[in-house]
Amino acid sequence: MTDAFSFELRATDAQARTGVIKTPKGDIRTPAFMPVGTAGTVKAMLPGHVRATGADIVLGNTYHLMLRPTAERVAALGGLHKFMNWPHPILTDSGGFQVMSLSKLRKLTEDGVSFQSHIDGSRHMLTPERSIEIQCLLGSDIQMQLDECPAIPIAHDDARQSMELSARWAVRSKRAFEEKSKPGQALFGIVQGANFEDLRRDSLDRLLEIDFPGYSVGGLAVGEGREEMFRVLEFTTPHMTVAKPRYLMGVGKPADLVGAVARGIDMFDCVAPTRSGRHGQAWTKTGAINIKNARYADDPEPLDAQSDCPPSRDYSKAYLNHLFRAGEYLGPMLLSWHNLQYYQDLMAGMREAISAGRFGAFIADFKATTGEEIV
Fold first, then answer.
1. DSSP letter assigned to residue 105
2. Of 150, 140, 144, 139, which is closest to residue 126 (Cα–Cα)?
3. Which helix (H) or strand (E) holds 90?
4. How far apart are the first and last CA of the chain?
5. pLDDT (mean) for 221-229
6. Residue 223: pLDDT band by 50, 70, 90 thresholds?
7. Which of 101, 155, 322, 356 is the most buried (most CB within 10 A)?
8. Cβ–Cβ < 8 Å for 297, 324
9. Which residues are catalytic?
10. Nearest to 227 by CA among 372, 13, 31
11. What is the pLDDT of residue 2?
């Protein structure tokens, strides 16, 4: 392990990249998928099982943790790594997206955003400085600047105003991080600008001047569709610093991951594998299936007989179908585990293919077996 944060790019294949992010809590192999541990837990999963899937890092949510149990309580109990029994790297988001999407009442100003908790109606103020303070109290290894994430579609003038506010907040976030962070922690800037090329370039230029150790692409996966998301990546990632990690926030389904890696992205997070698992959807090598469908009630085959993952290998589709129909907790648990394993296997396959210079063949095989189009 290392006492400093760094990124080593090890191989490229066209725009796709593979490398290693080094942190004091351990290495993160890229392309990396980060399971989402919203409230200090990856839903329906034990930390050891999350690690067993191949996950190097998980994501914690600033908004949810600041409200319950509070960042101050987590800090007093030894920090988020100890609190949730995950001694490996943790990334925390800034809380801004959840403030905008979940709060009952909110008011955006230059200073920050005031909001009412969706839990108990209490009033709070989230500023760039407070967001960083919370993330430092949690002790996360990778932290995010506070930004505004507008929905798409949005008018150009409105998108510019939002982007410029996020850029000013980036300056304040960096200043607060320099005052409060510990050695080895890193702060990422977030590229905004909706789906406008000139605004994305302007946002990135401003962030490059601030000089972050990593950069995120925000404001996507907000309803714009896969083709539009890829279009934005195509005019954004080529201008991002080669020697620093690139993180696409809140993405996505397997085809999204493959297409974004092909466009130069290194890191991802999404609730999709666990949320899908809780609702009976299983991702497989031949595409997604709904295990609750009657066709699986008499199916004796497992989801993946060749897998090393117990839920994928050791339980029949018929049994999984029964668990969901009976309302048993074990069903969502097993499917969440299976889906996380599928995602980590997908990332490992992409890392291997990029290293071997055969990522194009990997994409072709993915399209052929899943029927998904990587536009």
1. S
2. 144
3. strand 90-92
4. 39
5. 93
6. confident
7. 322
8. no
9. 93, 269
10. 372
11. 67
Q: Is residue 284 very low, low, confident or very high in pLDDT (cuts 50, 70, 90)?
A: very high
| Beta-carbon contacts of residue 7 (< 8 Å; ≥ 6 apart) | 19, 20, 21, 22, 213, 214, 243, 244, 245
Q: What is the pLDDT of residues 289-319, one digit of tens each?
A: 999 999 999 999 999 999 999 999 999 999 9
Q: CB within 8 A of 103, min separation 6: which ones?
A: 115, 116, 117, 118
Query: Taking a C-beta distance cutoff of 8 angstroms, is the pair 266, 56 a contact?
Result: no
Q: Are 273 and 340 in contact (CB under 8 A)?
A: yes
Contacts of 201 (CB under 8 A, 6+ apart): 193, 235, 236, 239
Q: Which fold has domain 6-276+339-370?
A: TIM Barrel (3.20.20)
At 190, list the tokens.
């977030």
Count Cα atoms within 13 angstroms, Cβ side, for 203: 33
Half-sphere exposure of 172 (CA within 13 A, CB side): 19
Which is nearest to 203 in space by CA: 211, 195, 191, 213?
A: 191
Q: In 3D, which of 346, 320, 335, 307 has the Cα closest to residue 44? A: 335
* Residue 175: partners with Cβ closer than 8 Å, 6 or more residues away: none
Both tokens assigned to 9: 């790019």
Given the structure tokens 């008018």, which residue do they identify?
155
Task: Give the pairing type, strands 287-290 and 281-284.
Answer: antiparallel
**Distance of alpha carbon 298 from alpha carbon 221, whole angstroms:** 37
Distance CA 206, CA 91 (A): 23
Residue from 35, 103, 108 nearest 66 by CA? 103
Comparing C-alpha atoms, which of 253, 258, 254 is closest to residue 364? 258
